[in-house]
Write a structure and sequence with these properties.
Layout: H1 2-13, H2 19-33, H3 44-59, H4 62-70, H5 72-95, H6 101-107, H7 113-121, H8 127-151, H9 156-163, H10 171-191, H11 196-212, H12 220-235, H13 240-245, H14 250-275, H15 279-286, H16 291-299, H17 305-335
Helix pairs in contact: 1-2, 2-12, 3-10, 3-11, 3-12, 5-6, 5-14, 5-17, 6-7, 6-8, 6-17, 7-8, 8-14, 8-16, 10-11, 14-15, 15-17, 16-17
Length: 343
């Protein structure tokens, strides 16, 4: 926590967006690479994700729905484009004998890193290799997104919002928001819905704001630990053993991730020139994951948060639905049911 605070203050001084996510992320990576084994309480990460969902819900209003309605071709097209690019890059890594096919396909699925890691084990993939590739993707994508947001012009409104740490609490609204958060967590657990930790509080929050007329935005002082927990969650997945074991493939995998980012960036360029979107919003909306990290960056950099969240959520859901079928089909076509590693 101390190292996270020091790094966060340093990034704040440099005016980095999402510094409250990035500082804890780097602190956790440093600790993990020094073989200090830390774990988070299982309840902390779900609550933090639910708070992110409430934050996004609070930014949605009736005027944003018309904008999203006009943007649906870009949302759907960008989602399909990112999935196609990830499949081609995964196949390329397999052809070059850098990664086994199943690990390459699962590892480069552009979204739901934790879900992809768990599901990949059921299809014969090396879950440690998939986890490393997935969270390396999240790390590289997050770092590039922060760099892009840092170079962009930050709106005065977003800067002011970041400074209001102890805004007055309206207790009826706060209690409704807390109820939405708890209900979202409960339903996610009961239904075992992938991505539900963010999406269910988001949907319930929208309903609460629309029908109850409340403002469920979480107080900034509550979002600070939530951002830190999200950063720790990603950073602590790295360890020295896995890094050493994959050191030979690391440059190629990082290069492949950068190619995936560039491919998604092409869609962002199309959104700017054909759709008239602002460049930062188009880039963050097209960015290949992760949902929580990109949402944090968008909320702290003045981007159009509802549009970014809509496209990221669309991609997340489609990846979760299609990944098992794509992985099974590609493995059967290319490997003829041979177990992973037999190539």
């Amino acid at each position: 926590m101390g190292l996270s605070a020091v790094l966060t203050l340093g990034l704040d001084w440099l005016h980095f967006p999402a510094s409250r996510f990035l500082g804890p992320l780097w602190a956790a990576i440093i600790v993990a690479l020094f073989q200090i084994h830390l774990t988070l309480h299982p309840a902390l990460y779900p609550v933090s994700q639910a708070l992110i969902g409430l934050l996004v819900a609070s930014s949605l209003n009736p005027s944003t729905w018309s904008v999203l309605g006009r943007s649906w071709p870009y949302l759907v097209g960008g989602t399909l484009w990112s999935i196609a690019a990830s499949i081609l890059i995964g196949l390329g890594l397999f052809r070059l004998r850098i990664l086994p096919l199943s690990s390459a396909v699962w590892g480069f699925s552009p979204g739901a890193a934790g879900v992809m890691t768990i599901m990949s084990g059921d299809y014969g993939a090396d879950t440690r290799l998939v986890a490393f590739t997935q969270y390396l993707r999240v790390l590289v994508v997050s770092m590039v997104a922060v760099g892009v947001a840092w170079m962009a012009v930050v709106s005065p409104e977003s800067a002011a919002a970041r400074g209001a740490f102890f805004a007055p609490i309206i207790f009826p609204d706060f209690l409704v928001g807390l109820s939405v958060l708890l209900l979202g967590l409960l339903l996610t657990r009961l239904w075992n819905l992938p991505g539900g930790l963010i999406l269910l509080p988001l949907v319930l929050g929208i309903l609460a704001e629309s029908f109850l007329g409340v403002d469920i935005v979480p107080p900034p002082w509550l979002m600070i630990p939530a951002y830190a927990i999200m950063g720790w969650r990603v950073g602590l997945t790295f360890d020295r053993e896995t890094v050493i074991r994959t050191i030979k493939t690391l440059p190629a995998v990082v290069l492949a991730i950068l190619i995936l980012i560039a491919a998604c960036g092409l869609w962002a360029v199309a959104m700017v020139y054909w759709g008239g979107f602002d460049p930062l919003t188009a880039y963050l909306a097209s960015s290949p994951g992760g949902l929580d990290a990109v949402t944090i960056i968008a909320s702290s950099s003045g981007a159009d948060l509802p549009l970014v969240m809509a496209m990221q959520a669309c991609r997340l859901l489609l990846v979760i639905i299609t990944a098992p079928y794509l992985a099974r089909w590609i493995s059967q076509k290319k490997l003829g049911h041979r177990p992973e590693g037999s190539d």
